[in-house]
């Protein structure tokens, strides 16, 4: 193991704790306040369904923002920059391409859930309805394992980065980050996490723009794309890359291509197994599901591409040439790169303490967004798939809600302790990034067949998923000891070739089992039986009636969106995984002008993405925003002008007296402010009533 040079932390521990605790408390109060305002003024009623799936009413913009934020983990930001550091421009592009197609592909699952099983609260409920307890518990186990590994990689990566910036204890960060998230997740449920995701995404884009403009426009260390190009050519001479002719500005990189396909296989499994994606798919309104995930996919791509094209290249250019780089004049060690420290070091080199503060905010925003999504996923599974399914079939909405809230607290404590254990035994982000795929790919093929085939037999799930997992695990352990020199170690298990073969084996085994089972031992399933399934109780009656009477759940309407999803998935996968990277995989080193255009396009893409996930949700929700603001203003004025005495009524100052009843929370609103269906910020309809005072 190489010696790690001592690097002085740029910010104080006080700054670190201030962001985690202070900013965390501020965000929690803001999100809880917004959620309370929506309940009070726009008719949002807290219930188990509202808590788990936001009453199935999210708009397109918020669905896209939620997908971006849920997929924008701290490990995403850290590992994308590390990949660019390892492979140059090719690493930055292929990291984004290898991890964005899954979001579009998931739109197929999301719209299929609405076509075939619109009454679901979780995707696992369908497995219990079709195949019974053994299959249900098997897939539930792998789903929760995926949630645990996702939170672990997010928390461990963020804690390591925060420690490198501020010196805050890694153990303290591992406990405080989940605790902050729990504060607003516990009270507001999925709607609160979506609102927090939206706010976090805005901040992430703003910091991204600051990094780009400082690096390529104002910095005296780089200052322009042309200057960056010159520095990278010098770096290729003193520190050649593993790419074509040692260049950092070529797309001919076998290592990057392998890493891209490894990421695609692994994180397709993660997206399809991660219950948080299913929850947001269920929560989206039918008209918002497919466009939300497509726009989210295209928007998310801009973050790792633009960030890695900036910070990853800064590290390559300044690492051994600028005294501002923390490890100067030494290169970063393999341990530092694997721990995700390329981003904080590059930010410090180009922006000083301001860059370190920016990365600190990035780590906080990205980690808390991902953790909140995982908390809600586990809460939904606990309430519907464990408590209601196995302990109390006739559970009321309030009972399910209590179980969900208790599970949020329990999972927060468990993950803080589990993350501390992982750090204590020396597990880093690089290993967690790869081991997640060993679990997530085991049931990927089965999940696809469950939603798109009515012939899949029970044995393909139990014991089929365990067979897929066993095959992948056997390949993982055997190849790690054969292809990598030395004893079996975490480094050997994280090898790209080893993991690529492992994930392909697990997915291929599952695909073979499902194909053979559907052809030779089919078990037919009547999708219409979902409507009379035992998983529906009296507590679900009102929700089921609402779905039946909603024209957006009509089969022809949903079929249209399924076709759109299929076409978009084929196009996006073909362009980003095949056409774009492989058309440039040739003996070509970027010219200065081509490089300048490449960097400019990465910024332009990020600006368009910010418009989609940052500004478009505000436009969609303009009427509900106006309604809530006006109602709150009227309520505040009414409170201030209320005369002494026990009467709950108050009279406005104008000639028209309006009644404000604190018991039923009715407030006088302008006649032009009702919220029309489909134009809500969060899908809730506003109700405004006025009357004369007695």
TrEMBL record:
Top-rank taxon, per record: Eukaryota
Chief place where the protein resides: membrane
PROSITE patterns xrefs: NA_SOLUT_SYMP_3
GO-annotated cellular components: plasma membrane
Gene3D superfamilies from the UniProt entry: Sodium/glucose cotransporter (1.20.1730.10)
Record's keyword annotation contains Ubl conjugation: no
Localization annotation: Membrane
Alphabetic keyword roster: Membrane, Transmembrane, Transmembrane helix, Transport
UniProt region (Disordered), positions on chain: 641-694
Ribosomal protein in keyword set: no
Transmembrane segments: 15-38, 58-81, 87-111, 139-162, 168-186, 198-218, 259-277, 298-318, 361-387, 408-425, 431-452, 459-480, 500-520, 561-585, 597-619
Biased composition annotated in UniProt, kind: Low complexity: 650-662
Record GO terms (molecular function): putrescine transmembrane transporter activity; spermidine transmembrane transporter activity; urea transmembrane transporter activity
Membrane topology: Multi-pass membrane protein
Recorded family membership: Belongs to the sodium:solute symporter (SSF) (TC 2.A.21) family.
Protein's UniProt name: Putative DUR3-urea permease
Native organism: Pseudomicrostroma glucosiphilum
